Amino acid sequence: MLEAKVQEAWRVLRIQSELVDGTDKLLKLGAAVTVFGGARLDASNRYYREAQLLGKLLGEESIPVITGGGPGIMEGANRGCYATPTPSIGLNIDLPFEQTPNPYQDIALDFRYFVVRKYLFVKHAVGFVIFPGGFGTLDELFEALTLVQTLKVKPFPIILVGRPFWQGLVEWMQDRMVAEGCLSAAELNLFELVGDANEAAQVILKHIRVGEFAPNE
Known about the structure:
Distance between the termini: 36 Å
Largest sheet: 7 strands, parallel
Enzyme class: hydrolase
EC number: 3.2.2.n1
GO molecular function: AMP nucleosidase activity
Family: Belongs to the LOG family.
Number of helices: 7
CATH architecture: 3-Layer(aba) Sandwich
Pfam families: Lysine_decarbox
Mean pLDDT: 92
CATH topology: Rossmann fold
């Protein structure tokens, strides 16, 4: 019993160590855009290519791109930004499958704990762009929506790319969550549904041009 408690205490210190190290390495990053999406969508997939284009468009505007550092959509976004002078960042994590670090990272950080990685996804974000993906992608989407909804972070654009993929979910929110009183209709305005990378980039750029930004606390 005592040994288990000691292990838990050391876990807290390991989390703290990851947090300090990650914060320090991204300290000078400034405003960035975090991109999420499925690890299983390879370079033959159109959403991979859209993510790559988005990374390039943002990089050309000197806006760093942050991803989870893995394959699929993450690789696409990193790859597009990596081809520009702007930093391409990957926040990698140790997982039993799917998480192979992609080679398009100027800054590559490795994490054991999701909690630290999630904090750093948000800290520098002036926008989240969400491409099609699985459970992890949905987790990040709804966490971002909750943080903005509850004013735990300064509001920023949360953009869903790919109308055919996301439309059913949006309609379910309207037909079930709003209709049953679980959400207000206004809360559906916390995110925006777009068709492609160009539209997503324009939303981000418009947001950046009208505001002043500091890291989220």
